[in-house]
Amino acid sequence: MRILFSFFAVIALVLSAYAGVKIANLQFLFGVVIPYIAITIFTLGFVYRVLKWGSSPVPFRIPTTCGQQKSLPWIKQNRIENPSSISGVIIRMALEALLFRSLFRNLKTQLKDGKLVYGEAKWLWLAGLAFHWSFLIIFVRHFRLFLQSTPSFIKTIEGLDSFLQVGVPLLYMTDIVLLGSVTYLFLRRVFIPQVKYISLAADYFPLFLIFGIAASGVLMRYFYKVDIVGVKELAMGLVILKPVIPQGIGVIFYIHLFLICLLFAYFPLSKLMHMAGVFLSPTRNMVNNSRMVRHINPWNYPVHVHTYEEYENDFREKMKKAGIPVEKE
Amino acid sequence: MATKFTAKPDELSKIDHKPPKKGWMDTPAEFKEHTFCWGAKGKNLNIVDFPNARDWSPAEEDWKLPENWQEIVLEGIKDRLGKYRSFKLFMDICVRCGACADKCHFFIGGGDPKNMPVLRAEILRSIYRKYFTASGKMLGKIAGARELTLDVLKELWYYYYQCTECRRCSVFCPYGIDQAEITMMGRELTNLLGLNTDWISGPVANCYMKGNHLGLEPHTITSSVEFFLDDIETITGIRIKPTFNRKGAEILFVTPSGDLFADPGTYTAMGYLMLFHELGLDYTWSTYASEGGNFGFFTSNEMAKRLNAKIYAEAKRLGVKWIIGGECGHMWRVINQYMDTWNGPADFLEEPVSPITGTKFENAKSTKMVHIAEFTADLIKNGKLKLDPARNDRLKVTWHDSCNTARGMGILDEPRYVLRNVCNHFYEMPEDTIREKTFCCGSGTGLNASENMELRMRGGFPRANAVKYVRDNYGVNMLANICAIDRATLNALMEYWAPDVSVCGLHELVGNALVMTGEKERTQDLRLEPLHGKEAEE
């Protein structure tokens, strides 16, 4: 149900783009209006969400320590997994954001004949890493459409990405990796019972959407070739705020663009915000130094306590009998 | 109404990890006997001025909630979203990748899908989405949103009192989402409705009024310690004279009250007494700040702060220079990550310096509170203790890292260093079950009651399984740790899953190995059992 809902939602969106362009000739809507709206929603929404998180304070210093603390000088501290300095945190966060350090720890816990066995479980890490990095590279490659002349680093990336020198046009490895990893991420949601049990429509929808984006991109590049000059003209028009709709760009382009717009617009409303959230996570981005430096809670307020005086009043006689010194005889 | 928990280990170890067909949102919590604690008593809630104070029982249909309970919960969520970035973020960014699922000891040992940390969090997230997000308001269930019904509240309660805030899930989460943090929020919400447990609220009320969870009154504390002193004299021939509430001492010593009350914590307390005596340390116990642990921490941030306040207040009153803290798990999470923020700055104290070695404890220069394992490790490193580890030769020891000290502090190698110096046979459990990946005893956060024994045995299963491994492979017969809740609960766990393994604190082993000035030849250990090789002389 949750899978079908998401699947048909994406199919319906593809069809609406197809119908909108092919039948109703709404090229301007799909090529100009919707992209502007999507970018606006993405930018404002993204900033809003981050500011909203940021508006709540971090009252306590709560890093999850994953190694030896800083203690006596002769005890070897784990400076990255239990950082006591900002540089340690920067390395910890870099490993987290770039290499998915925590996910790399993943284990598979299995019960065999009453014994628990902990096995390696790196597939999720590998697929996650492959997915995010290929997506990023593809994203960067697309910059050539938005820039008058293509910068050399993009050409380098393109060169590396197509170094297999297969096919015409040259096959980009990241295209295959993205489609493969997104398929894996989908299949594990379907076939691992626990993961299926926890998955919401909001987990399937972005996978279908991204699959649709990648698939339409691949179709456009390798099979139903579109007028790439026209595409660049349209893209440049969007960038310089003088939108144009060149004639004769294939409908597949508009489908591709529409799905991307949806992804952008959907992004700030969804779990995809983990992209920004990971950097704000207090269990990862904080220094474990709260015994060395006092951490301030902005909303710390005085509380009722049971004072020593009250305590002694309750127990004075008993204390005296037991030979415990008291304040008032 | 209560029946005895009789399920056998081979019954309990048949665990099905496959989730049911029916979706979790439509499956209300079933309150199974032996998996939850009794409800709080009204008198205990009254002592600390908690709302909706009345006797209640989770097993009963009617929870005697205030009329506007939904409003209270939703207002409570809103308030906490504004106060804790962690909470707001953790409600929003989970992608449900499932990496945490098989990391939770309750899920591993029980198989209930709602004990997967991700689903435990989703219980609260579903409410959050319904009332605090646009998509949840509009799309409802398809967006993972649910109305806050009585069933949902009961589900929240049931599963948030099946989480020991051990943070193991948070180690594996790619975004560091910490279920402990979410559980704390969930439990705060239940406390707005007076839905605490007896096993937590009783100790909280005790600690507030009498200074410690067990409700030991001042004269009881001194007389308990007298018993230890008698035993120490029997064993060593030395009569120790500790002081209580003494003004002008250099150091205040605070330890969980469990150490004063029941075996095997009491042996650990004897170890402290012997060590401090041997050093001639100028220190005092306090009967007012007689609790290192903090059951308030399992209740609400405010309650935790109220209980914790006694430590600094007493240090100030007595005019000590700094504080040593005993062996306890959550106590040290609180001291490391909360105490200074709540009740500091401790500017009336001095930066801790060991009077024996001159070592400055730089890592405690603001909080001014040193962990006893740090203190003792430093003594050993500087050659200040005469130790005879052979006195522990009867024991083959393994080390249990407590959740809080491992993942909320990182005190891993100090106790191991001490351990290696006080005993000759030390074996580590498998690496995926120790250090930051350590498993909970299954009874933390106030779940160490007796009426929830099935839950405890299930939650402790992964820990016990790893102990069993070293027992079977190396003949391990002692499970050492630095946590009072461990010492109070692991015995039952071992008896159930890994018989013939006893439990001890680190400083019990220190006390055994410590060669004291003027002591007689020892023939007994702190448990009054014959030392290795001395059996024949008995």
Characteristic key phrases:
heterodimer; A: 329 residues; mainly alpha; Fumarate Reductase Cytochrome B subunit; two-stranded antiparallel ribbon; elongated; B: 538 residues; 2 domains; four-stranded parallel beta sheet; three-stranded parallel beta sheet; 7 strands; 44% helix
Report on this structure.
The complex is a heterodimer of chains A (329) and B (538). Chain A is mainly α and 329 residues long. Chain A has a single domain, classed as Transmembrane di-heme cytochromes, Chain C (Fumarate Reductase Cytochrome B subunit, Up-down Bundle), CATH 1.20.950. Chain A contains 13 helices and two strands, in the order ααααββααααααααα. Chain A has a two-stranded antiparallel ribbon. In chain A, a hairpin with a 2-residue loop joins strand 1 and strand 2. In chain A, helix 1 packs parallel to helix 9 and helix 5 packs antiparallel against helix 7. The N and C termini of chain A lie far apart (75 Å). Chain B is globular, with a radius of gyration of 23 Å. Chain B contains 22 helices and seven strands. By secondary structure, chain B is mainly alpha-helical. In chain B, the strands form two sheets. Chain B has a four-stranded parallel sheet. In chain B, strands 5-6-7 form a three-stranded parallel sheet. In chain B, 44% of the residues lie in helices and 5% in strands. The mean pLDDT of chain B is 96. Classes of the chains: A mainly alpha (329), B mainly alpha (538).
